[in-house]
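Hi W.,

Here's what went into the run:
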Amino acid sequence: MTGHTYVSNDHRKRHRKNVIIMLAIFLLIVVLFFISMNTGFTRLTPLALIQTLFGMGTAKQELILFEFRLPRIIISILVGMALAVSGGILQGVSRNALADPGILGINAGAGLAVILFISFFSSAPTTQIFFLPVLAFIGAGLTAIIIYLLSYKRGEGISPIRLLLTGVAVAAGISAVMIVLTLRLSPENYQFVAVWLAGSIWGSNWKFVLALLPWIVILLPIAFWKARVLNTLNLGEISATGLGLEIERERLVLLAIAVGLAGASVSISGGIGFVGLIAPHLARQLVGSKYQYVIPTAALLGSLLLMTADTIGRWIIEPSEIPAGIVVAVIGAPYFLYLLAKSKA
Amino acid sequence: MPVLTVDDIEVGYANNTIIDGLSVTIPEKKITTILGPNGCGKSTLLKSVARVLKIERGAVLLDGQSMKKLPTKEIAKKMAILPQSAEAPSGLTIFDLVSYGRFPHQRGFGSLKKEDLQAIHWAIDVTGLSELKERPIEALSGGQRQRVWIAMALAQDTEILILDEPTTYLDMAHQLDILLLLKKLNEEEGKTIVMVLHDLNHASRFSHYMIAMKDGAIVTEGAPETVMTCGNLQQVFNIQATLAACPFSQNPICLSYQLTKETECLQQTAAHS
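Here's what came out:
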């Protein structure tokens, strides 16, 4: 077998283009990071911002920046990243561009856990603020496991389409139960639940950052490492088997990564939809369908999108705020309709 | 030693057994074609050999070892599969897709090493795609796309190629083009090729070994002249065929045919044989 060993110029150019795109998104994130830190009831001039960041601000400035704004911004960055990568993985595993963490019942399961807890055990949810994420995570995980088991068939394993349909059905069922439960809530609790379900970065606290960080630090590199597996899965079952991929095992591992990332996010930010759907979509439009590029690009776009949404949500009706999840949906829905109108089918 | 042996297998979908107790040996470094009417189980047999379908009973042996006991990645280094309707994700170039064929040889993140690049470029060259390698797959014609998939299977660097109806949906010239490519790969690279074909004449012209199936069982197998007889075609397809010799391969081909009635089968010899 003879053949040359170089990579063509076009191939290198495409690689460089993709790297530049990722750098550009990263720069946008940095810019937005500073804008976001300045957004809120108390304005901080760029100078005051830099002074405070380097420990030379007033006590009030430090409090606002380090205790309120910074953790919240970091959470929006981490959550956006996790949801986007989770969605990217699910779209790859199901070979369906419309899949997002919601289809694994993650949002519904987390929401149900929160509502159940508030309905039966607590009259003042704010006192349980640190317990809720744990509960939401358990709810999300359990629902994902139930959906997986329901769509598992002996001898055949998991078919992506069965997984999607089971997910839709289970999520619909859970939503119905949630509506019944919310009807019985007190107005005060109802408001809390409504905001939670809409997806709000309410946990602006360093403890939440610390709770979220391990999931991201561990699972994101694994997702990135699995890019080659996702590429191969995307060729269809027969080709993937032919290439020596252990489909069932890899699917399970990838689903677990997706559930871990989305579950951790949802438990802290509530039911933020659309990020997991749109970020990977947009990433593919920008860098093609090789997952070595799609995963990091989607992660960056997810951060950018959610940080933008949270900043807009905090700014638009100051001093009150709109949950980030709603802002994302307001931005995301038209983009999605545009995609549908543009697609050939 | 035979590379692939099917030993008394039973396969089916859900509760529907399609093949029960089939055994066959695929000759090494030859082109073998499986044929038979729709629903006869030929694709099922091919998928069982390719380990895509789970076998209920029996075994498929690769180099004398049961494939169930071999790691799937090790099998992938010896056997490549081209599915019937392969569809590439959008936004990939030919080079990208062919490079995916290196999967079983790679570890970890999958950066392309020297031998990977060598195999990819060789596969692209031998399938005549060098000029197009940076084009997106979407921009290619059906025949070119099929070549890309074959190139991906070649980049996998296996002794055995399994193809499910590689010429379906292609026009006459492109069908021949693909079969000539497979013939070249068999003759020059010593690849063992197993495929399902619908066109009897193509099967006869390009195969060393033919397997004719009906109702999940093998009716007859052997060299084209043993399999392509009026009696066999009548039994397998319920057709009454008029046979001649192919002017290119001298193997029997079917000039024309009718649905079976009680009439005698006509065997004709072409003028040039």
